[in-house]
Amino acid sequence: MAKLKTTFFCQNCGAQSARWIGKCPSCGEWNTYVEEVIQREEKGKGMISFSGSDKARKPTAIGEITFDTDQRIDLQNEELNRVLGSGLVPGSITLIGGEPGIGKSTLMLQVALHCDKLKVLYISGEESAQQLRMRGERIGIKNENCYIFTETNTQVIFQHIEVLQPGLVIIDSIQTLHTDNIDSSAGSISQIKECASEMQRFSKITNIPVFLIGHITKDGSLAGPKILEHMVDTVLNFEGDRNYGYRILRSVKNRFGSTSELGIFEMQDTGLREVSNPSEILLSQRDEEVSGIAISATIEGLRPMLIETQALVSSAAYGMPQRSSTGFDAKRLNMLLAVLEKRCGFRLGAKDVFLNIAGGIKVDDPAIDLAVVAAVLSSNEDIPIDTKTCFAAEVGLSGEIRAINRIEQRISEAEKMGFERIFISRYNQKGLDTKKFAIRIIPAKKIGELYALLFTQL
Q1: Same domain as 256, residue 329
Q2: 238 in a structural domain
Q3: What would the mean pLDDT of 20-29 be, rounded to a whole number?
Q4: For residue 360, what are the contacts with CB-CB under 8 A and spacing of at least 6?
Q5: Which positions ≥6 away from 398 have C-beta within 8 Å?
Q6: pLDDT at residue 285 in the model
Q7: d(CA 357, CA 104)
Q8: Which of 11, 58, 79, 143 has the lowest CB atom count within 10 Å?
Q9: What are the helix (H) ranges across 348-395?
Q10: With 80 as the cut, is the pLDDT of residue 2 above it?
Q11: Residues 198 and 285 occupy one common structural domain
Q12: Is residue 209 one of the residues assigned to a domain?
């Protein structure tokens, strides 16, 4: 019997140590090292030889390397294709993470069932084949070449892949896999790292793309070693509020496209519906005008959309004023309130201020600063803003309204959604052809000027 070998791994970054240490030298976290049993097999034992892995390799000049510019795979899902960068690259490995019950498995099974031009192998270590068939009936089976395999041993999985020769492999989830090369339990740091390494090697050699579904920890980060995110080509976050039916797919890392793209879905009984026009779902329908509401034109990736900013300003009933924001950076809200207090003379220091971005999404675009300021002023004065008015500008520390990028796209989106006027920075007027827009464009230089235009000249 082989001697049992153990080592210590950092649960935060995956660093390895021969003994337990209190502070991780790699990430600086305390008390994160745990002991795991690790027993590597003899060289060659338990390893799978992929097709093409035995070919002779030699250094190649970069100019001699050939590739197909039209080689991206269409996943029959416009939102997912947009986030990936107009499709899936063959031989890539993609990691998608999210909270339990958010819809990761539903999204991946939906992709597998709708890719009717691909042979897809869906490997599940969490659900039975009967459970997946029930979900497939609800979603709608369109791909008869979708194969379900319930297995967690990587050696067995690779053997069946060699026989089936699929065009796409989906693993649900990476935390359930285990390899015979390491004698530790599934879900441990060493197992996750080794299984991901085997999947990466398989994907690069066979040129078959792989989707890995990953769990997340209670602080919102992907479970497992940090090196897992470095090994894969693309990292996607699937997020959303359970109280809302909308789900957002964000790209955190993408070697083949932009990381600023956004995909929006709506959870329904029949699966996830793609939302091609997010402005319609992010703007609430109101029968009457209400104070404290302002519409902002923002951009996520290449997509312009309109979002609703809601603010509530009231007298502090418990002495210490509260500052709370949902979907918007709380520190930036405090900065904007300080600008209103110091530069513009609005007495908000003794009042509670609550801010909410409608739809349950998170926005970090500085172009919504002007809408936040307008919503706060509207609630403070208890005067509603015209529902056909929107805003697109950044606010500086001196109270000036600063220019933003891609202003023409924002104006066009506002015009398309039926808005009659939009407030922008005066510095955005340079080079802007206002004659081609039917919407009224109102430039402003200072917050005081905005206040006069909104509440004293209506």
Answers
A1: no
A2: yes
A3: 87
A4: 240, 241, 243, 244, 246, 327
A5: 339, 343
A6: 65
A7: 24
A8: 58
A9: 369-381
A10: no
A11: no
A12: yes
